[in-house]
Design brief:
- With 238 residues, this protein is an alpha/beta fold.
- The strands form two sheets. A seven-stranded parallel sheet has the order 1-3-5-7-9-11-13. Strands 2-4-6-8-10-12 form a six-stranded parallel sheet, with no helix packed on it.
- The C terminus is likely disordered.
Length: 238
């Protein structure tokens, strides 16, 4: 077991390295399959099996993919799934998981320290150990459809309204600056509408036998030690 000072040092280094991303997309997957020896063609009957992350950045990002993936038996520092589908994550230990705008995902028997799930429906969570498990269904109920009018009291929205109104009523030659915050407000409104429409006809998320994560320090040490060992392997190979 690492002492606290050593653990904190490795953990800070791990967080810094999370800014480096391994991008997995439909365009890049063929080269990654050859490099890592991943099996599968991405179909429902033969999903691409991601079971080796050596020499890849610890921040794994899957974005706008329609292929089938099976991420299996890995220790992952950060995994981000954005606007994608057909991903199964099984028997993994994950420090940070982000799922945004996703559906038809399956999470089975994972240990997850931190997670953020928004604008996502039609996903299955079975036998996972999660920290703050009480927020899992709350995310499903409260964030799937979040109309812009619920955000009117938020500081950013109020600030944009104030700038726009002030510019239009200023009576100066710079009144047209008010169109800038109006543009931001329009974009916010469109994104909210698009996200809610995209998920409106999807089934609700399905939860079975998910439990509160125990021994968080032990799990964190496992992730840190794995990260440290991976760095040693990279250094030796260089």
């Amino acid at each position: 077991m690492l002492n606290n000072s050593h653990q904190n040092g490795i953990f800070k280094n791990l967080k810094r390295k999370m800014f480096n991303k391994t991008q997995i997309s439909d365009k890049k997957i063929n080269s990654l399959k050859i490099e890592k020896g991943w099996q599968g063609n991405g179909s429902k009957s033969e999903p691409i099996v991601i079971d080796d992350l050596r020499n890849l950045h610890p921040n794994l990002r899957i974005h706008r993919s329609t292929l089938y993936y099976h991420i299996n038996n890995l220790i992952i520092d950060k995994l981000s799934c954005y606007y994608t589908q057909n991903i199964t994550i099984e028997n993994c230990t994950i420090y940070q998981l982000e799922i945004k705008g996703c559906y038809s995902m399956n999470l089975i028997n994972n240990k997850i320290l931190n997670y953020k799930i928004i604008y996502s429906k039609g996903n299955t969570f079975i036998d996972n150990q999660l920290s703050q498990i009480q927020k899992l269904k709350r995310n499903n109920d409260n964030i799937i459809i979040d109309p812009l009018d619920r955000k009117l009291a938020k500081p950013l929205t109020c600030c944009l309204y104030f700038i726009a109104i002030s510019a239009f009523l200023s009576g100066t030659n710079l009144w047209f600056i008010g169109f800038i915050p109006v543009g931001f407000l329009t974009l916010m409104n469109y994104l909210t509408y698009y996200r809610s429409k995209r998920m409106r006809d999807k089934k609700v998320n399905f939860y079975v036998n998910n439990t509160e994560l125990q021994n968080k320090k032990v799990i964190l040490n496992e992730i840190i030690n794995h990260h440290k060992d991976s760095n040693k392997i990279k250094f030796q190979e260089k």
